[in-house]
């Protein structure tokens, strides 16, 4: 839902996932939008730089969806991705996060039902028509911050000598000890930013998974655990793999809606996160 001020100078957005709208509170969405429009009545100009940044669960989903899209084991084995090991092989078994980071797919995850067998119309580094009908079970991509698996076909599994771990239709991310809401995380930030959404996310460097994109729908300055006003939009440059090692705080995992990739990956549950030193590389002109 998009909300605008009466004079049409301010706008923001709120999205939620649902199957039948029985669990959607329009009043709650409306209150959230009104609060953000009120914040936008106070303007604070901030320069580009690195900020402790509160990411809503939807923005977290947008970042880590891209990480999944470059997680093909064959690409990593051939030295073509952020998960390639220097000197050859993959980074499976390497600790990449500073927290108890869990990331998995599970066809039996109650809130996000998914197919339990491979069904592929075309072959790619992520799937093979020759694997059709093979069972899909729970796969822990990350466990306790350690990379456990990459997306495999049976052919790539034979090549890499790792387990056959086909891509699933859902993705669940959690952080040990994560609790509370987005609003609870804001209270933990002394000086930083609260984002609404990301947009125009693109790859810059596959070797580090450096991404670039824009903020959208409202960026807010947080000081002393409170939102003190709205600030300008930014172009950002950062890597979800690098961000894994800069998690300051995490909320509770929730079924969420990505903004950029809503049409590609809606079967996802993530927590809101606070990322240390998120790189806002330039102020976005005209914002």
Automatic annotation (TrEMBL):
Pfam assignment, any one: PmbA_TldD_3rd
UniProt domain Metalloprotease TldD/E C-terminal: residue ranges: 49-281
Record-level GO BP terms: proteolysis
InterPro entries: Metalloprtase-TldD/E_C, TldD/PmbA_sf
GO molecular function: metallopeptidase activity
Record-linked PANTHER family: CONSERVED PROTEIN (PTHR43666:SF1), TLDD PROTEIN (PTHR43666)
Identification of the protein by name: Unannotated protein
Organism of origin: freshwater metagenome
């Amino acid at each position: 839902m998009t909300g605008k001020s009466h004079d049409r100078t301010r706008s923001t957005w709120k999205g939620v996932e649902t199957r039948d709208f029985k669990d959607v509170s329009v009043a709650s969405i409306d209150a959230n939008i009104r609060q953000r429009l009120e914040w936008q009545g106070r303007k604070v100009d901030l320069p580009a730089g690195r900020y402790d940044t509160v990411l809503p669960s939807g923005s977290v989903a947008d970042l880590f969806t891209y990480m999944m899209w470059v997680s093909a084991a064959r690409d990593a084995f051939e030295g073509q991705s952020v998960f390639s090991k220097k000197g050859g092989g993959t980074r499976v078994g390497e600790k990449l996060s500073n927290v108890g980071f869990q990331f998995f797919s599970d066809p039996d995850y109650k809130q996000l039902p998914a197919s339990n067998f491979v069904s592929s119309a075309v072959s790619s580094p992520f799937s093979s028509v020759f694997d059709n009908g093979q069972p899909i079970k729970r796969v822990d991509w990350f466990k306790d911050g350690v990379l456990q698996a990459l997306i495999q076909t049976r052919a790539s599994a034979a090549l890499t000598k790792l387990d056959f771990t086909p891509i699933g239709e859902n993705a669940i991310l959690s952080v040990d000890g994560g609790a509370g809401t987005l609003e609870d995380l804001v209270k933990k930030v002394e000086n930083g930013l609260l984002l609404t959404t990301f947009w125009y996310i693109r790859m810059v460097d596959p070797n580090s998974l450096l991404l670039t994109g824009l903020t959208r729908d409202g960026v807010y300055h947080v000081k002393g655990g409170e939102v003190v006003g709205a600030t300008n939009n930014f172009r950002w440059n950062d890597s979800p793999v690098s961000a894994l090692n800069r998690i300051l705080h995490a909320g509770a995992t929730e079924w969420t809606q990505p903004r950029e990739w809503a049409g590609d990956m809606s079967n996802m549950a993530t927590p809101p996160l606070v990322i240390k030193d998120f790189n806002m590389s330039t102020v976005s002109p005209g914002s």
